[in-house]
């Protein structure tokens, strides 16, 4: 097969887990003898070709008001204009048409289409090439890609969401197949009427995470080193974690790694106040960070599509405390490798922190089973094989149609 992969970004431009997973998929498929090409975006105008580990990568300049992959937050009107154009960006569709004509792939695998818009689907259909859509987030449901609003959506926000996604449901029925990186994210779309009569698959992401050896076991009376790593935002539950850690009264400290928008960082530091037990460590190597903590907390209050950071923590022999939201319920199993808490019961997070601090036996049992519980997510071969099956099935069905 000759496969064209379309995504907002590609290595070395990385905004999140989608780019990490896509690189593993692309290079895995190439290693199996398939011809692969990537179409991604760049902030500079025009289109150029790069080569990344032997993979041909087109980088097309985004034709919209600003480059969105920064920590800056444009004014509300500017964001609205950006999303209005992104609802259907014909200018970006022309890039897709150009690459399709040049490369003539046998199948196209679309991933995050933010910036590209569903104009990409139309160009692929016009070229009579089968397409699979992989769902990494909620972008096709909502311009903000999360469907999260701390205070609830206003009537105006909901009307704008429906306006900006008015074509998406109908056009989703025309793709050849759809893949969710979790059962949860796929169901969020199907219950809204997306991808009707389209073959559906779930393919969990995978990561290469070295085995760090035996888990560190705690002893009675030890303090608890709590950690968070990732984007620092309200949707990720950082404020909830800070409040609950301070209120829990446990003996220990809280290390917060990662970055975010400056206004969010200032808010979280204000919440932490002068509590010396809370430390913001910024961007750090994740493996080094996991070695400094006893438990990882993933307190997302939005529907996390999968939550690979939880997998990373578990693979590093750490029990994980996670909110019972979205794909996190598919990786963190209560009483097996971690504990779940409920954003609708804010104190539940503090209660779980106290439990793992006091109950050393339970902590050690969860740590001992952590890595083995996510063995599926540590197999890149498994992930590549499942995507290969989806693409081969799609191209065969398309040829027989």
UniProtKB/TrEMBL annotation:
Recorded coiled-coil stretches: none
Record-linked Gene3D superfamilies: Glycogen Phosphorylase B (3.40.50.2000)
SUPFAM superfamilies to which the protein is assigned, alphabetical: UDP-Glycosyltransferase/glycogen phosphorylase
InterPro entries given in the database record: Glyco_trans_4-like_N
GO molecular function per UniProt: transferase activity
Domain annotation Glycosyltransferase subfamily 4-like N-terminal: ranges: 16-205
Protein name: Glycosyl transferase family 1
Presence of keyword Hydrolase: no
Record-annotated membrane-spanning stretches: none
This protein's UniProt keywords: Transferase
């Amino acid at each position: 097969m000759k496969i064209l992969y379309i995504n907002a970004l590609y290595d070395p431009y990385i905004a999140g887990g989608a780019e990490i997973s896509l690189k593993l998929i692309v290079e895995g498929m190439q290693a199996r003898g398939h011809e692969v090409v990537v179409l991604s975006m760049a902030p500079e105008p025009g289109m150029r070709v790069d080569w990344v580990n032997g993979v041909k990568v087109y980088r097309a300049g985004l034709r919209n008001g600003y480059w969105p992959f920064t920590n800056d937050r444009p004014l509300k009107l500017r964001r609205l204009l950006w999303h209005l154009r992104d609802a259907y960006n014909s200018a970006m569709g022309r890039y897709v048409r150009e690459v399709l004509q040049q490369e003539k792939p046998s199948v196209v695998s679309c991933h995050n289409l933010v910036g590209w818009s569903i104009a990409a689907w139309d160009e692929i259909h016009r070229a009579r090439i089968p397409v699979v859509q992989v769902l990494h987030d909620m972008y096709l449901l909502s311009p903000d890609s999360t469907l999260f609003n701390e205070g609830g959506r206003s009537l105006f926000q909901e009307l704008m969401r429906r306006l900006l996604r008015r074509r998406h449901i109908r056009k989703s029925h025309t793709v050849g197949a759809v893949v969710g990186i979790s059962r949860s994210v796929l169901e969020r779309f199907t219950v809204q009427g997306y991808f009707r009569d389209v073959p559906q698959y779930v393919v969990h992401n995978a990561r290469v995470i070295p085995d760090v050896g035996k888990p560190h076991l705690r002893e009675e009376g030890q303090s608890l080193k709590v950690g968070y790593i990732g984007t620092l935002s309200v949707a990720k539950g950082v404020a909830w974690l800070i409040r609950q850690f301070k209120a829990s009264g446990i003996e220990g400290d809280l290390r917060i790694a990662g970055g975010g928008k400056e206004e969010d960082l200032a808010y979280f530091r204000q919440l932490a106040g002068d509590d010396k037990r809370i430390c913001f460590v910024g961007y750090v190597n994740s493996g080094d960070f996991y070695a400094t903590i006893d438990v990882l907390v993933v307190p997302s209050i939005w529907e996390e599509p999968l939550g690979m950071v939880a997998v990373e923590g578990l693979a590093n022999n750490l029990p994980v405390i996670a909110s019972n939201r979205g794909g996190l319920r598919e990786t963190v199993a209560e009483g097996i490798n971690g504990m779940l808490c409920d954003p609708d019961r804010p104190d539940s997070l503090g209660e779980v922190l106290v439990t793992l601090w006091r109950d050393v036996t339970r902590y050690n049992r969860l740590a001992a089973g952590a890595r083995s519980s996510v063995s599926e997510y540590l197999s890149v071969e498994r992930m590549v094989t499942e995507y290969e099956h989806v693409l081969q099935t799609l191209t065969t069905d398309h040829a027989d149609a």
